[in-house]
Amino acid sequence: MNRLEGNVALVTGGSRGIGAAVALRLAEEGADVALTYREGEAPAQKIVEQIEGLGRRALAVRADSADAAALDAAVERTVGTLGRLDVLVNNAGVFLVGPLDQLGPAEIDATLAVNVRAPYQLARAASRHMTDGGRIINIGSNIAERAPFPGLALYAMSKTALIGLTKGLARELGPRAITVNLVHPGPTDTDANPAAGPNAEAIAGLTALGRYAAPAEIAATVAHLAGPDARYLTGSVISVDGGFSA
């Protein structure tokens, strides 16, 4: 299928996990794809090669999502190299957890810089280049809907903030037919959270389906939101969590 033929997408944190799956799925749908990574050039280049193997153009940009100037530069490089920008996927995130008395100002600032400020900054930069009908898709977390264990307050706060950002941007950009939506993944089998990890059985048991998602299952929903069939869907929060929050 080539529902995204002629489109250019930027996926932050696109070198591994959900971000890599999203980048590849958008390329399969016909988009040229730029992705950012903070460290690990080799994995990022591997995704670039896979995208190019699908016959699409690809670009890996090293950018720390905590650095607003680096994010602006990533958008400009995407547009300068690939010619346009139609789809932004705010996927990069940090996951700092722990007791309330152990997470202070440094951890708060680090979390909010990447999980909240970066999506706002990227939407601001990307929307300047998007033509009418663009797409912004934020990647949140099931923890925004349900925090089942202690130590998740800071992370849950940061991901819950994306609900307000998504709805506010949907209103602001709606007159240009730019849609803005939020996807809350549930437990997903990635390097950072493997389905064979020490606590995986308990976490999977919190879902209605009793299992972790594959990254490709999250990417499928993102691809739908990026495509023409989702043009009347905006300001929405979609949980792809196997019934974790049911």
UniProtKB/TrEMBL annotation:
GO molecular function, one term: oxidoreductase activity
InterPro entries referenced in this protein's UniProt entry, alphabetically: KR_dom, NAD(P)-bd_dom_sf, Sc_DH/Rdtase_CS, SDR_fam
UniProt superkingdom: Bacteria
Ketoreductase domain residues: 7-206
UniProt keywords, alphabetically: Oxidoreductase
UniProt family annotation: Belongs to the short-chain dehydrogenases/reductases (SDR) family.
Protein name (Swiss-Prot/TrEMBL): Oxidoreductase
Organism this protein belongs to: Kitasatospora griseola
